[in-house]
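Risk mitigation, structural track. In case the binding assays with magnesium ion fail to produce interpretable data, a predicted complex structure has been prepared as a fallback.
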Amino acid sequence: ILLPLGAVAGLLLVAAVALATHRRLSLPGEIRLGLKRREFHLHYQPVVDLRTGRCIGAEALLRWRRPEGLPMSPDLFIPAAERSGMIRAITAHVIDNALRDLPALLALQPDFHLGINFSAQDLEADGSITQLLRGLRAMKAPAGSLVVEITERNVTDAKAAAKQIARLHDHGVQVAVDDFGTGHSSLSVLAGLELDILKIDKSFVDAIDAQAAASMVLPHIIDMAKALSLFMIAEGVETETQADYLRERGVQLAQGWLYGKPMPLEDLLDLLRTQGRAWATRGRSMPV
Ligand code: C2E
Ligand code: MG
Ligand code: MG
Ligand code: MG
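Fallback model:
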């Protein structure tokens, strides 16, 4: 039964290695592997004109197809990527894919607007913006066809953000402030930025039906957007009641399950083809 010391050490080592490889990877580790295995792809959620119901654009939303395990919401893996520094690689992938898909969308609808989400780090460093502008220039996309969405949360350094936003603007990229009303930035900070679009957070839209306290704030958000000459996109519109309320108060655009869930590119292209046939005889100019 007595084993030589070397053999015991060897067995222990084998056991340790087996344990380590069986242990689940950390979330950042899984993200890194997922990127390498091309498990991340974009879905697109239609953005519609509230008056006509016409789809005038879409928001690109990242999806993670994990071979084992349940689908994971970007609300979970994006913050993890932000904390671990993986977000730069994620955003590079998002920009790549969005720019790859944009020509097909513009071919069907020349005034299409595609929104992509930026994290704070994408705004702080030059890399993502440079990649975006270089790609746009190469494809000669019309100005305004890309919209970069930033959250109030991401505007930590207002001066630096203002500079980057101006740079996007100079090159014809529109800028939207996402999840408006949920952050902590003061209105004076926002007023100092060259913004084009204000996205009204879903919580305020939900409050319309619930007649909750947040619904009393909504008219003020709308007034502020009007005072700053910002276009409005209401997020998470699920009912006709909500759509009616928003339309009556002059909110121009909306996205939500009432109009369409995030979908693969092919489905969005089908939607645009169908819509193109329906609108062929009318012809009207788009709000954004
Ligand atoms: P977001 O940018 O505010 O995107 C809107 C979210 O609301 C999406 O969730 C969308 O699927 C969801 N949504 C839209 N309409 C409805 C509705 O009618 N009802 C309900 N219940 N939900 C609706 P999703 O796709 O899970 O994304 C969550 C968040 O993750 C996004 O919020 C955004 O902050 C972040 N995210 C997603 N993709 C990216 C990305 O490529 N880069 C970065 N940095 N963040 C991303
Ligand atoms: Mg967004
Ligand atoms: Mg949002
Ligand atoms: Mg959100």
